[in-house]
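REQUEST ID: PR-0412
SUBMITTED BY: lab tech R.K.
PRIORITY: routine
TASK: structure prediction, single protein chain
INPUT:
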Amino acid sequence: MTRFTIASFNVKNLIGPDKEYYQFQTYTPEEHAWKSDWTANQVFTMDADIVGFQEIFEEDALRDVISEADEIGIASNEAVIPSKSKSYHRKAIFRKLGYQPYGDAALAFAPNSNDTRQPGRRRPGVAILSRFGFKGTPEIIQDLPEPLVIPFRELTGSDGGAYSISRLSRPMLKARVPVGDTVITVFNCHLKSKLGEFLTPAGADFAPESDLTQYDPVARAMGSLRAALRRMAEAWVLRRAIVAELEAGYPVMVLGDFNDGEHAVSSEIISGEVPFRNYAWMLRHNAKDRNDRYTKSENAQISAAVNAMRLTSAENLFVRKSLRDMVYTSAFGGVYESIDQIYLSRHFHPDNDKRIGEMEYFSVFNDHITDGSHAEAPYNKLASDHGQIMAHIRLGE
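STATUS: complete
OUTPUT:
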């Protein structure tokens, strides 16, 4: 039996001091030291075996945070691991007594192809930290070998044009991680945000929609539509990669900042379809009369095919298991929701009698999350605006 933890951590704009990442946005040396210390303390608190990080501008900045977490953890071990020299109230009594440093862990960083490296025009990447190392070289998914072309048809049947992308807004990172005798494919993603995508006309300094003194609600809604289309296209690219791994026989875990809730279309694209309770009542795809429906054996076949490619939210499994009714990783405009997710393939579903493992617990680190829309709410730009989530997994019986 092997137990391990896997976590997702959007750190919010991790970069070195005095470096302008977005326009006019930098950290002073003092602010950077505070942010690094806070981030390192979160890493130490989670003490996760596998961590997917989002919003990493520089690999060195992340490595410094990990090193600082190790310093905190080693000092903590000296204080709390039981020995006769320590008073009883300081002794750790948990199953996991001490922090395990990441000195021998592997780190894979995926820089953003859209990063200009120019001050004020930077773009963040993602990373995966693994105490188990990696099997093979982690793969970056961002620049597509062939553009994704999504054709449309009018309801009349005439050509409706097409939407296409050749590059994702941010990279996705795919890594095969050996855990005990099992190799698990881990995907880390950060999908396009809900911020509107506006077009700057040739020769103009900015998009007209960004001038809020000339507020154009219809044009800004179109920007939201563009962002949603891009996010869902990126979700499909991720789904295609997930299915390839499942078909190759690998258990899959997908984590990251989805920028959407569990029931959003983009999230459902990633997780796959929910099967109907009974396909035998449905008309066949090639029905010749009203009674031409799928058979019971075909119902079983279809249900098995759909379930084999499905992913399940770890949060959803935990809520079902613990009877909790609220988990959130972000707060904006008075809305508390989970836009950071960990998805698990059927290999870890408790209802699957052929499962290879199971999630035992789900941790949420969100005490620092406050809603900036409330004037009374405390806020610190140096902490992350995302909560961290962590799934506790048991492999074997």
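NOTES: The first helix runs from residue 29 to 46.
REVIEWED BY: pending
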